[in-house]
Amino acid sequence: MRVALVILHADPAKGGAERYTFDLAEGLARRGHEVTLIASTFGPRPAGVACVELGERGVTRLGRYWRFLDELDRHLDRRTYDVVHAMLPVRRCDVYHPHAGVAAEAIESGHTKHAGVVKRELARVGNRVNLKRRAFARVEGELLNGKGPLPGPPPGYRERGEEAGGGPVVLCLSEYVKGTVRKHYPGLAEDRLATLFNAVDLKKFDPAKAGTRDRATDAVVGLMVAQDFERKGLREAIVALSRVKELPIKLRVVGRPDPAAYVELARSLRVGEPVDFAGPQRDVLGFYADADFFVLPTRHDPCSLVVLEALAMGVPVISTKQNGACEIMTDGVHGFVLESADDAEGLVGAMRAMCDHERRGRMREACLALRPKLAYDAHLDTLIEIYERAVLRKREP
Questions:
Q1: Cα dihedral sign for 257, 221, 299, 186?
Q2: What pLDDT is recorded for position 110?
Q3: Are 386 and 169 in contact (CB under 8 A)?
Q4: CATH, residue 90
């Protein structure tokens, strides 16, 4: 099968959709598919994959986005693929895979780098005037139902949403995401929705290969891996840590952005030393191996890959119902699923419970039992079935 994967920036170091797309390109190529990765910029190039660099042209981010769409259209006019699989809103594709959730939801709910009621309301207002976010929502709306939720396409904008058999199949990372798609696009036919839960490379994330430490004698290590500290709940985790100072808990934080504000917060709450900021890391395997539990009290996560990696490594997780990845968990068995990031008492109680060595051990075994459900091969099998379905849709009259 000839597959085109489309993403704005093809750099796995960015994590999230970028990392997923890189791994997917290599995974499909290993299975013998002819894969082309299309992006405006690249980091390392995936093995066995053709790469088309459209270039990052334009003065503003919005301008670069419109230019990318124009260049992509020209490329697709020249080249034919069985399946075009896009990770962001584009004018035409066969499979649309919104990793951060649908763009229309971001406009309405203010899922950005802000936390707190007042800041989230400011974010909602900001998203409505953010030209690039409005453009994403407009293109997505045209793609999915022939009209965008917001007015104002630029001069020369081409509506392509009605092509390719009535629109693409929408890949939802979880039932949580599928609910937001139905909310914003209620006219979307059910046969255009598919759930594709994230998966884990079990060969890489294998606790037997990573080694471990003596968990019975050391401090209890909580781990957070994130690229957006505010939305992912780092502030809430540090505050909760300050309320369990009598317990030997250490919080290790991997990722970006600059943690200066959180370093100051930890110092002000007198938990500076128990919080270790490791910065962005290309390889996080060793951090999972050293962790006793994983904490991500996120406000919005379609299906957090790092949560699934933690579970595959046998690391119990504390997260929220606003994280689609928690749909595979049972509260109290594989960790704890909080009502929301604002459930401060629940987060404190979960951290206290993670200090029980025997309970943690039972959770660890339960997490390891989830590994077959997280297998990347099963993920690819399901995805290829969805591709075949998309190809048939294109052939329908």
A1: positive
A2: 60
A3: yes
A4: 3.40.50.2000
